[in-house]
């Protein structure tokens, strides 16, 4: 998607739509504010063309003006993603369970799935224990990482039997502990779960690696985490819903 | 870019952006994405075409483009639904953090009241101040001014802290209170755990917390909750006056409405869809 020029220019595809959405995708956690010159360069289009797509996004409420004639994402940009999550039984059913997990531990609770070679965080509820907010900076729903680099990804891969995680990462009952996946200073604890008709997912808790030892983390947080995974598995199995996402 | 050429020969009752400086193809593609909601998660070409007043072939072309980009997918019934890729469109937004969303509303609150507007989250037994916009009318207080974004203050003697504690489940709130050391900081700091616990019940009922010289002498503040999409309270917006500019009663009487409105606007920015009040 980085090179829209290589997209089919046949009459089945709207090139303008490809360019416009590719422009919108350039606003990321790492580069939240962008100017016309750099957008034109990334998209390999002229500045007036880039300006036209940016103006359209601005007018429709997907972008807003940032200082020095640059742009940043506006609220509407999040709406398709929120609508998708609201239509996804997995995400809807996970939310109350993640809220409960955050409440009982104060740690950030998240739901992740595999999307290709990535682990994709569908929901992240930021914890309120000491240091959790600062740890969550630059993260959020939609965060992607290489699957094997995070606890959630490793847990999902381990449960699918396709790959075995490094033994030191895998604890009893499928609990995976992995440091540095989301951020260098973060520790992730994850348990994967499967339910009929749903893709394998994982519930992950994130905390500062210095805040808690691995032994204490698995001891204190392993139980509420497993309980949350069991609860989600149960509500998914108990509901004969159509899977909303095909693998 | 060939946008005009693409669009010229098509009927268009729909576009709202008529000027050539906008891309109609982009507008239409985004409008198609906007048709999908949790209430209407599955839509076919005919429904989309009718809703947007576009021809079916045109609609099909945009839908195909959205499928190839990973924003829509087709299910067994041949209808379409939003695909996982849509989460990427707003990922940068959810990563921006609260500050970016709150800033314009803090500025407006500060401008309208003349006092200092702040936003904070709970961070253990303390609050973490994320941002503050100083008001013109706010008096001066060296201790208060030394506090800025990134500062931590005790939760029990700040209005924002009391809001954040008040909305926790009762068991957790009592546990946190039991771990606190209620040191006297101002003339009216609450130093009794029972009194604090009682006041937090009221705060949760009223949706407003007051700091009546509990942190610093001559400093008053009020705060209201910010809710995220899940409905949980995750932050508080506060309005602070110090240096004897006004007292707590005047803050409440004159600015409660503006404060609560600002907190609600921030909530909506971060995806809260609940009802007002």
Protein topology:
The complex is a heterodimer of chains A (247) and B (277).
Chain A: H1 15-25, E1 33-34, H2 36-43, H3 47-59, E2 63-66, E3 70-73, H4 79-87, H5 89-105, E4 108-115, E5 118-125, H6 132-135, E6 144-146, H7 151-159, E7 176-179, E8 186-193, E9 201-208, H8 214-238
Antiparallel strand pairs in A: 1-3, 2-3, 4-5, 4-9, 5-6, 7-8, 8-9
Chain B: H1 3-7, H2 24-35, H3 45-52, H4 56-68, E1 72-74, E2 80-82, H5 86-89, H6 91-94, H7 97-113, E3 116-123, E4 126-133, H8 142-145, E5 152-154, H9 159-166, H10 170-179, H11 193-206, E6 209-212, E7 220-227, E8 233-241, H12 248-269
Antiparallel strand pairs in B: 1-2, 3-4, 3-8, 4-5, 6-7, 7-8
Helix pairs in contact in B: 2-4, 3-4, 7-12, 9-11
Structural write-up:
- The complex is a heterodimer of chains A (247) and B (277).
- In chain A, the strands form 2 sheets. In chain A, strands 6-5-4-9-8-7 form a 6-stranded antiparallel beta sheet.
- Mean pLDDT of chain A is 87; it is low at 1-10 and 240-247.
- Helices cover 39% and strands 20% of the residues of chain A.
- Chain A has 247 residues and is α+β, with helices and mostly antiparallel strands.
- With 277 residues, chain B is an alpha+beta fold.
- The longest helix of chain B has 22 residues, at 248-269.
- Chain B has helices at residues 3-7, 24-35, 45-52, 56-68, 86-89, 91-94, 97-113, 142-145, 159-166, 170-179, 193-206, 248-269, and strands spanning 72-74, 80-82, 116-123, 126-133, 152-154, 209-212, 220-227, 233-241.
- Chain B is elongated.
- Chain B contains 12 helices and 8 strands.
- In chain B, strand 6 (209-212) and strand 7 (220-227) form a beta hairpin.
């Amino acid at each position: 998607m980085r090179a829209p020029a290589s997209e089919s220019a046949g009459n089945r595809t709207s090139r303008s739509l490809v360019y416009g959405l590719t422009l919108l995708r350039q606003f990321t956690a790492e580069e939240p504010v962008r100017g016309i010159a750099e957008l034109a360069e990334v998209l390999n289009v002229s500045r007036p063309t880039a300006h036209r797509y940016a103006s359209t996004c601005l007018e429709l409420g997907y972008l807003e003006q940032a200082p020095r004639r640059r742009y940043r994402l506006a609220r509407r940009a999040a709406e398709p993603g929120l609508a998708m999550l609201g239509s996804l039984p997995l995400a809807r059913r996970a939310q109350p369970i993640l809220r409960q997990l955050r409440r009982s531990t104060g740690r950030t609770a998240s739901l992740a799935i595999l999307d290709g070679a990535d682990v994709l965080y569908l929901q992240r509820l930021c914890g309120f224990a000491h240091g959790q907010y600062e740890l969550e900076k630059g993260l959020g729903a939609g965060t992607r990482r290489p699957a094997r680099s995070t606890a959630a990804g490793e847990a999902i891969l381990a449960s699918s039997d396709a790959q075995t995680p490094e033994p030191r990462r895998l604890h009893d009952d499928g609990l995976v502990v992995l440091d540095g996946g989301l951020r260098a200073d973060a520790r992730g604890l994850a348990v994967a779960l499967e339910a009929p008709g749903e893709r394998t997912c994982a519930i992950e808790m994130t905390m500062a690696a210095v805040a808690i030892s691995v032994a204490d983390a698995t001891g204190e947080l392993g139980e509420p985490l497993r309980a949350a995974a069991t609860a989600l598995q149960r509500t998914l199995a108990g509901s004969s819903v159509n899977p909303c996402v095909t693998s | 870019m060939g946008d005009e050429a693409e669009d010229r020969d098509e009927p268009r009752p729909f576009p709202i952006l008529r000027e050539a400086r906008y891309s109609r193809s982009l507008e239409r593609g985004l409008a198609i994405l906007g048709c999908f909601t949790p209430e209407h998660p599955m839509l076919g070409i005919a429904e989309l075409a009718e809703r947007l007043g576009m021809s079916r072939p045109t609609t099909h072309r945009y839908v195909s483009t959205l499928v190839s980009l990973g924003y829509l997918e087709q299910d067994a019934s041949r209808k379409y639904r939003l695909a996982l890729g849509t989460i990427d469109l707003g990922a940068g937004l959810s990563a921006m953090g609260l500050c970016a969303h709150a800033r314009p509303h803090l500025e407006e609150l500060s401008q309208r009241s003349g006092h200092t507007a702040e936003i904070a989250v709970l961070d253990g037994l303390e609050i973490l101040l994320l941002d503050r916009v100083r008001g013109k009318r706010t008096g001066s207080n060296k201790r208060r001014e030394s506090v800025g974004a990134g500062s931590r203050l005790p939760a029990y003697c700040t209005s924002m802290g009391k809001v954040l504690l008040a909305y926790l489940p009762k068991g957790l709130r009592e546990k946190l209170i039991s771990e606190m050391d209620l040191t006297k900081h101002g003339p009216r700091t609450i130093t009794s755990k029972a009194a604090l616990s009682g006041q937090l019940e009221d705060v949760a009922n009223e949706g407003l917390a007051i700091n009546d010289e509990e942190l610093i002498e001559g400093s008053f503040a009020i705060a209201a909750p910010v809710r995220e999409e899940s409905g949980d309270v995750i932050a508080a917006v506060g309005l602070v006056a110090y240096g004897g500019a006004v007292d707590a009663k005047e803050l409440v009487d004159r600015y409660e409405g503006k404060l609560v409105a600002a907190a609600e606007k921030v909530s909506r920015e971060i995806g809260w869809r609940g009802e007002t009040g």
